[in-house]
Amino acid sequence: MPKIRLSRTSKGANKLRAYRVLIDDKYVGVIHRNQTKEFDVDFGEHTIQCTIDWERSNHITVDIQDDLEELEVIAKGVFESAIRAIFPFDGRDKYLTLSKKSK
Fold this sequence. Notes:
Layout: E1 3-8, E2 19-23, E3 26-31, E4 36-40, E5 44-52, E6 55-56, E7 60-64, E8 68-75, H1 78-86, E9 96-100
Parallel strand pairs: 1-8
Antiparallel strand pairs: 1-4, 2-3, 2-5, 5-6, 5-7, 8-9
């Protein structure tokens, strides 16, 4: 069965908290700091997003043709998080960054 492998780095202010993982707008689990998780999916197109509280990542759409698609989620740093708590003007989907993992 094809999988989406999601990795979370150690960067960011939310070191003790988990991010919720959504695939095709359905909750599929959480990911913690320095963790890599795999989620079973069907072949074809899927949209992935991560959230924490009211903040979220961008949506990323992948077309699963092989057995594995690798993604990573990165949070803003401590300073950026503090500024964002005071001035959250750039949209709720800018706090976490979801991208295809570099090979």
